[in-house]
User: Fold this.
Amino acid sequence: MNIVPATATQADLLAALDDSVAFSANWSAPNWHEELSRSATRIWCAQEGEKLIGFIVLCGAAGQWEVLNLAVSAAYQRQGIATALMRHALAAVNHAQVTLEVSTANQAAQALYNKMGFVILGVRKKFYKDGTDALIMGNVL
Assistant:
């Protein structure tokens, strides 16, 4: 598996993967094109050969970063790929302050973020379309 920067030509592939994964942001191809064009956004892809198997999206401002989206193809989950993507992204932003929102229903993601040293900073009530709350988590510096 390799982790590489996303390219504008991958917007449709990113959208398809995003749409196929539970708890992902489910951005459309136009959303992906927009994110890929933003100078403050960093997107990395996990690839097995030429096959896209995961991604992570961060947006930064004033030395702080937010994880906007993270997903791994169902066939590749529980193999350390999300951990590798998180480690890569944190190293790429020089382990700056990073925050994210995660569904209270997404126990696997919460476990990953806890393992990476993130702590709960707050709660956004009924944040998701299905009415579930979001935990606001961040790495404590």
